[in-house]
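Journal club prep — side note

Before the paper discussion, L.F. wants everyone to see what a predicted structure for a comparable chain looks like in token form. Sequence:
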Amino acid sequence: MKPGKIISERQWVVSLSFTIMFLLFSANSFSQKGIEISLVGYPGFTLVNFEKALGYQDDYMEDWDQFHYGGSVKGYFLNDKSLQLGVEAGWQRLYYAYYIVPYDPYSVYREFNVSTISMMALLRFLLNEKIFISGGAGVHIFGDGIAPAISAEAGYLIKAGNNLKIPISFRLTPVFGSGLPVSACIGAGISFSVR
């Protein structure tokens, strides 16, 4: 990601701090029945404009890989309502690219393995006890800065015990940085309730 396209870290740290404070103060009204913790893996594919994202012409690209993989830890405040508030922390590997750029008299080699750490506030809407849709907003932290991100997810909860579920989902996550990477992933994991 080119630093010029990434919003200042200070602005996002302040915004994220206010979001976390809001979630903590709201926890009492949302967590009437406890907290649900989910561990989810996300394999998939990242669509990205390499030239805009990395600043090199695609003609110089020797190798690339758009396979996405990552994982997240989510927490939802459980209540008697269909709408639930939550938070997420995750890591994702977005894409890889390798360039050989000719500069007389030598060539320059550039390798990019782009990954992020993300933090998001989430809203989940339960259509019934098994089907859900959720959306999130937050930040992706790259090695050279921070970019805003959103997510949209739809899934199914398979009951595996009194307090244990297996979430299966499909998720889209645009990252609003250079080249606008968008990951499309299948999610699978484990979810348990703490009351």
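L.F.'s comment for the group: The first helix runs from residue 9 to 30. Keep this in mind when we get to the figures.
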